[in-house]
């Protein structure tokens, strides 16, 4: 018994003994370097008339075994689905057949045989020969999805994928969503670019960064929280439409909506504004939905029925707050008045709120967000929470920004980008004061970015969409961990 291995028990030892006995008899599965996988299970099931009576070779994992006499049945699963393998002692020969019966659920095999239909009407492959490709030394969980410790599904994602085919489908759909977004943008003359993950300044978003240290340069660096400031430098440089689809990192809490590393699409388009970004957002989300929903735009998410057909509802933040609280922030003239309104509505924890706009935003988050079920663009945000956004013409308090909400969650954030370097420098200075006042998520000043603006940034629209949340929505998963192959997890024992 291998007592030196973790979680090694009697069943594991029995499987290892079988492997060593096969190797001693001349079967050496780990020496096989290539398999001619001619066809997949679903191809045979979908096009049976083309394969009936023909010899095929399939490869995959044994997921079940039935019968132990002269005839046996097994289910073999490959990337496309599963198909029944019919094995008979007369076809394989006594020695090969007994070795086949001695295989375990989970073993990886290649099978060559004839396609036919059993008396019960099930499309199958009559095995003529087979190869063991790799031995499954640990037994698969029988009811893995039903384990009370659901964290195990995320810690051992490979088991989750083996046992639960629907999980594989989620990640195939994730790939389709990302591919569709790229196609839509490529068709509109956007170019995909790459910007640094290691930043000297954590800029482009309001978030607490991760800090690392570069030994050779003896300097601290930040994992990027957003590629925004780099992408807008490219617009200054003459690229008119750019996007980046990749990882961002934010040192924040972990819950069903947040993971410290996550995937976003950020894009910038010259000569447009946040209204143009609303239209592009509708196109990206509706096309991604159709790609994984058989062309339909009506979906279910949890217990909600959603309609993702453009155009989406549009409402200003002021209008949303008035609808749900009766408070009109256009009539609020001082911070003291705003604080009194907050107290009247039970908002006692104002955090680092330094302006009327901060409290306006708290009102929206507390009383409005959860009520936004159908897709809704909330636009015209207070300047205090939007340090990189252009002011609305005629207003010093409101900026041209929107966020998209569905089922009470934010799915996209967009601006008419601030392109006045004087205003941007002042905004950075204001953010620095907030940071010095205790707001660890406030933006850090980026003087090089301000200098880039001094060379001239044309009117530009910018948009960011969280890919993970979008995949959650379009695959009907309510936890971000269900759409990340390897979510961040606490180390066991800590």
Describe this structure in words.
- It contains 16 helices and 18 strands.
- The radius of gyration is 29 Å and the shape is elongated.
- The strands form 4 sheets. Strands 6-10-11-18-17-16-15-14 form an 8-stranded mixed sheet, sandwiched between helices. Strands 1-2-3-5-4 form a 5-stranded mixed barrel.
- The chain has 494 residues and is of the alpha+beta class.
- The longest helix is centred in the middle third of the chain and has 23 residues, at 165-187.
Topology:
Elements: H1 10-24, H2 41-46, H3 48-51, E1 55-66, E2 71-77, E3 82-88, H4 89-92, H5 94-101, E4 108-117, E5 123-134, H6 151-155, H7 157-163, H8 165-187, E6 191-192, E7 198-199, E8 211-214, E9 219-223, H9 228-237, E10 241-249, E11 261-270, H10 274-292, E12 298-301, E13 304-307, E14 313-316, H11 317-325, H12 335-344, H13 356-367, E15 376-382, E16 398-406, E17 409-416, H14 421-436, H15 447-454, E18 460-466, H16 467-475
Parallel strand pairs: 3-5, 6-10, 14-15
Antiparallel strand pairs: 1-2, 1-4, 2-3, 4-5, 7-9, 8-9, 10-11, 11-18, 12-13, 15-16, 16-17, 17-18
């Amino acid at each position: 018994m291998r007592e030196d291995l973790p979680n090694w028990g009697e069943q594991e030892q029995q499987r290892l003994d079988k492997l060593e006995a096969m190797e001693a008899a001349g079967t050496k599965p780990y020496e096989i370097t290539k398999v001619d996988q001619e066809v997949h299970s679903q191809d045979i099931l979908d096009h049976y008339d083309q394969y009936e009576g023909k010899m095929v070779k399939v490869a995959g994992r044994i997921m079940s075994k039935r019968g132990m006499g002269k005839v046996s049945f097994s289910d073999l699963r490959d990337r496309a689905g599963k198909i029944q393998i019919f094995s008979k002692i007369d076809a394989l020969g006594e020695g090969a057949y007994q070795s086949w019966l001695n295989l375990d659920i989970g073993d990886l095999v290649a099978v060559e045989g004839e396609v036919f239909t059993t008396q019960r009407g099930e499309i199958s492959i009559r095995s003529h020969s087979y190869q063991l490709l790799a031995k499954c030394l640990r037994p698969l969980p029988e009811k893995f999805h039903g384990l009370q410790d659901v964290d195990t599904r995320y810690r051992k994602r490979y088991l989750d994928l083996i046992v639960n085919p629907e999980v594989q489908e989620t990640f195939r759909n994730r790939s389709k969503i990302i591919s569709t977004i790229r196609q839509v943008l490529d068709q509109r003359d956007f170019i995909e670019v790459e910007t640094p993950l290691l930043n000297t300044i954590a800029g482009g978003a309001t978030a607490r960064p991760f800090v690392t240290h570069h030994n050779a340069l003896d300097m601290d660096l930040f994992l990027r929280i957003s590629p925004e400031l780099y992408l807008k430098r490219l617009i200054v440089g003459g690229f008119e439409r750019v996007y980046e689809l990749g990882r961002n990192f934010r040192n924040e809490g972990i819950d069903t909506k947040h993971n410290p590393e996550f995937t976003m699409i950020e894009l910038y388009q010259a000569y447009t504004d946040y209204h143009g970004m609303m239209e592009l957002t509708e196109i990206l989300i509706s096309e991604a939905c159709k790609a994984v929903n058989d062309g339909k735009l009506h979906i279910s998410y949890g217990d909600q029925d959603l309609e993702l057909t453009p155009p989406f509802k549009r409402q200003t933040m002021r209008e949303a707050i008035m609808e749900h609280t009766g408070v009109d922030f256009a009539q609020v003239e001082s911070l003291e008045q705003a604080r009194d309104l907050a107290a009247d509505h039970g908002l006692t924890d104002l955090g680092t709120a330094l302006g009327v706009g901060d409290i306006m935003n708290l009102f929206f988050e507390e009383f409005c967000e959860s009520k936004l079920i159908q897709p809704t663009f909330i636009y015209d945000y207070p300047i205090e929470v939007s340090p990189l956004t252009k002011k609305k013409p005629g207003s010093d308090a409101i900026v041209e920004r929107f966020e998209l909400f569905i089922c009470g969650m934010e799915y996209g954030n967009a601006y008419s980008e601030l392109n006045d370097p004087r205003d941007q420098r002042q905004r950075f200075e204001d953010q620095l004061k907030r940071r010095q006042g205790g707001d660890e998520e406030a933006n850090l000043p980026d003087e090089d970015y301000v200098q880039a603006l001094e060379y001239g940034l044309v009117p530009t629209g910018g948009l960011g969409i969280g890919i993970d949340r979008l995949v959650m929505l379009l695959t009907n998963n309510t936890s971000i961990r269900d759409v990340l192959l390897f979510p961040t997890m606490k180390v066991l024992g800590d």
